[in-house]
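Example 9 (inverse folding). The structure is encoded as follows.
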């Protein structure tokens, strides 16, 4: 699929993400949640999981030349580890009031 012309938006029939063509040949991906991103980010988070040729044929983001290089920050980050032990108080059984 060719790059999207400046000022035009195309919606993917599978994931409903919109890709907007910008001046100079660049593009901006509008996700349903969060800040806009790149085709690489869209591929890392959504498009790479398509399995059938039918799905891939409908996807706006299967062309490697348009997608560009995917970097680690394009993928979803792991959730941070939360230490809940400090919120539970002293579980050791000591009671300073006793």
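The amino acid assigned to each position is listed next.
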């Amino acid at each position: 699929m060719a790059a999207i012309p400046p000022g035009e938006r195309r919606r993917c029939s599978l994931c409903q993400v919109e890709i907007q063509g910008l001046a100079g040949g660049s593009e901006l991906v509008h996700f349903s949640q969060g800040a806009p991103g790149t085709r690489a980010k869209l591929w890392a988070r959504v498009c790479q999981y398509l399995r059938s040729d039918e799905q891939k044929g409908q996807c706006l983001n299967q062309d490697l030349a348009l997608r560009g290089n995917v970097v680690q920050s394009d993928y979803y980050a792991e959730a941070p580890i939360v230490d809940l032990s400090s919120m539970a108080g002293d579980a050791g059984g000591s009671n300073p009031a006793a």
